[in-house]
From TrEMBL, chain A:
Residues 64-194 form the ATPase AAA-3 domain. It comes from Glycomyces artemisiae. Signal peptide: none annotated. This is MoxR-like ATPase. The keyword Nucleotide-binding applies.
UniProtKB/TrEMBL annotation, chain B:
Signal peptide: none annotated. This is Transglutaminase superfamily protein. Residues 546-585 have a biased composition (Acidic residues). PANTHER family: PROTEIN-GLUTAMINE GAMMA-GLUTAMYLTRANSFERASE. It holds the Pfam family TgpA_N. Residues 469-535 form the Transglutaminase-like domain. The chain crosses the membrane at residues 20-41, 47-67, 74-93, 130-149, 154-172, 178-200, 221-244, 596-613. InterPro entries: Bact_TGase-like, Papain-like_cys_pep_sf, TgpA_N, Transglutaminase-like. Residues 533-544 have a biased composition (Pro residues). The keyword tRNA-binding does not apply. The keyword Coiled coil does not apply. Residues 533-585 are annotated as: Disordered. It comes from the Bacteria.
Amino acid sequence: MHDTEQTHPLRVPKRMQQQVQLGAAQAEQFAAAFERLAAAVDTVVLGKQEVVRLALTAMFAEGHILLEDVPGTGKTTMARAIAAAVSGQWRRIQFTPDLLPSDVSGVTIFNQASGAFEFHPGPVFANIVIADEINRASPKTQSALLEVMEEGRVTVDGRPHQVPQPFLVVATQNPVEMDGTYRLPEAQLDRFLVKLSVGYPVEAAEIEVLRGTHQRSPEHLAAVVDTDTVAQMAEMAKHVYIAEPLYAYLVQLANATRNHPQVAVGVSPRGLIALTRAASVFALSQGRSYIIPEDVKALAGPVFAHRIQLAPDAAMRGATGAQVVADAFHQVSVPLPASAA
Amino acid sequence: MTAIQRDRPKRSGRRVRYRLRVAAVAASLTLMCALAGAVAARVYHGQLLYLLVAGAAFGAFAIGFALRNRPAFLAPSASLVGLAAYLLAAIAITDDGADPLPATIVDALVNAVPRTLTALIPVEPAPDTVVVPVFLTWLAATLACEFAIRYGRTLLGCLPPALLYGAGLYLVGPNAEVGTVSAVAFCVLAAAALAVTAAPPERRPDTDAVVDGPAPSRAPALMGMVATAAVLLAVMALLVPVAARLVTASPGDPREYVEPPQLTDIDLNPLVRIAEWSKYPDQDLFKADTSADAWMRLAVLTEYDGTTWQAAGDFRTAGTVIPGSGDASYSADVEIIGLGGKLVPAAADPATVTGLPIAVNLTTRCLLTPDGLATGTAYHVDSALVAADPAAAENARANLADAATVAVPPGTPEIMATIADYIRTTYDTPYARAQGLADFLGQHYAYNPEAPSGHDLPSLGFFLGSPVDAGGQRGTSEHFAAAYAVIARLIGLPSRVVVGFEVPGGSSTVTAGQGSAWPEVDFDGVGWVRFDPMPPPDAVPVPPEDTLEQMEEETPSPEEDSGGGGEAEDFNDESLEQDGDFDDALTEDAGGLPVWVWYAIGVLLLACVPLVLKARRALRRRRRLTRGTPAERVAGAWAEVLASAARAGVKVPGHANAEEAAARLATLEADIGPLPRLVNAAAFAPHAVSESDADAAAAVASDYSGRIGHQVKRWKRFLT
């Protein structure tokens, strides 16, 4: 009997049942809170519900967001709106070529009055950090964000300083004006859980934007959730149930990107973990306490595409990471019952 | 981590069992392909083709098996290369080296099919006759491996070897014994392959197994298998003997539909050669080194249309072994000097011929070489000498089984009928009449090598009836043999004319003077007996009219002529042939049941197939929707919906998730409601599925298949 439970894909093993801690009610509560937050951001960023929800998904998955689009599409506005909707600290850093790492992380100064060195935290010490036009800073300054994005702390003069939790970096970059910019290295791109493109709003939304330009500023947005709630919701996402066949499905997807003929470097295990975390949050945001393949498919593009390094000839031909991800989904069978092999 | 470690031995054991099953299927199908290929090898000479087809089956399957996990295009490509290499090897092995290998390869590939079909049994394993069976065996093994091993469709994998088996039977036709052992072995192997893969759902590696519900418990399953086997055995025990009695006809022989080798004029009417040979008796025709004295036959002529004597039947390409011959007791090495044409001299009955491509006339058992004889052509022939026993022939009746051997064309000269009457009234038994006719011709007619050629009825009438002064009553063996054969038929004796040579034992050169024609008469149970109607050397012929006029004076009235007394047996009484023990009674009683009943049973069984399929589908649906946990039932409902959509022509690709599948299914304009959500829950959170969910899913599945029923093609609705 025990064997049957272990081998049959539609019977939940006892060890797996013990891991399932979230009930439908909790998932509904999460979805409601998530929707309140998204709706608040939607009042400022019009017509971008999907991007807003993906960004919030990344936030609750304790990941960081890279917003890439042409100037004026609302990248910074959305970042500021998310920050304003969460009643925590938020800071904005305008990255420029002469920005120094200490301008980001903070500096230790000798206090003549006290006769001791004192640490003055940089703007990175906030719950939400908006790194505007991050690709304009030098690689040295960009790399100042590496440690804090991955570990949530800053080390200055050999002393670690913890940043407040939750901690979210929302970076923006402009893909068209490349003069005087420094392309983010792959290692740093991998630190961002999702890379999103805001895009132009649809016509109706754009008209609505014009009608209420002054009223829709992030400054007027009241906080909807506090940082504690965000931390609790992020913790809930770690207990979303993932069925055994989905693990294999996820790994097969990653392998498909790695073995793709147009790809030089496929998705890393870190990317796979990121997708799992993001899918967990996405499932909860839909009021579900378990992941389904639709969650994976919804997030694979934003999570995987920027982590895929295309082969030079494929890049020359105009191939994109999103196309590779789409190909991967066509190669891997969904672990549904009775699906064709 | 502990759980993973616990799973390893279990997964490993399952993998081993799976590999064992695959290996068993591969072995079974390989043997099936080899057996199927060997069906045709039964009509080949020697064991070589058995080895070649077995190698082809093994080679093709080995390539397919080795590449089973590689991309699908790779195995056929590699198999194609392997086939080419194997065919070249087979051609090289069977090549006799007479021609350059490239020419042999091209010739074999171009002419493989017609030569395989025209080759006479037993077929000689030559490059052009092994290509077809080797190619078909390789093809069948490749397809079987692809179907059964790569795609896991064992039943479909059995189809290519089964078709190959059928093709082999067709090629063999009626020329081999019934291969019961190989047929049983073939069926056993197929059953083994199917049984090995007939795993219960939870052990099947495919995804369908999940939704087919739990397997029935062991006892009912075992009882079901035993009951099914018992029913099958009972049906076979009842039907097979009856069906076997119904089969009275032999299978058709494809060789009957093949164009035979073409003959030249002198081969079509070889009797005209006698005049030339008689006129120039010293010309050398061929050298012969024989083991004994014998008559070597060039042609046997059984059909006479009033103008020419011709051979019956067609020539068929044969190998070195001539089919249907006995043990060779006579051998001859022949080297052609001046003999032309395509007909090959050989003593009756030829058993083996080497050194020459040969076709044989199965009716007369004479030989022909398609390329024709030329000076220097040499060959060796072994024959089983046929020596009819004259003592046995004396009391035998004429063999009237073949109407062609007693057929007489209209317009026979009166002299022939007169001689026939004379012989019939003078002699009682068929043998006495045959010998009497030979004696009559030998005593009353003269040999003249200068006599003009011709054996049409007017010429024979001139030979028999014209006065000596006018050039009649003298002729060559052409006239004697032809006249004898026609008169014999008028008497009621089955006759034929043979053209050949009298060849002494040892080494000698056969000249045209040794060539002659002679008549033969067929006696029941004895065979064809040669008669010599030629006059003895230096004999003075008696005018035939003297003997015939005397006969007319002595002829008794019909009432007095009782054929040698009332107790004498009438050897020409056809009613005696009706012994009542022939085939009619057998054919009337065969089977016990009229044939239409069996056709009706066959139609009924065919009509049952759709019903069985429908019942199977209904049972599967019931099992899917009602058995198992709620999650299993939801999955079963999903499978039912996909199956219904597939029947209606909409197939969902494997990479589609539930939402995408639902979008695809929506093209059938039938809503599946909450089923995608439920199946996602069933597959990825089985604990979240309740009984009500399962019931709802079952309702959706039933409703969906009902609503799209009209979109299923009519024939599919009817048959499945």
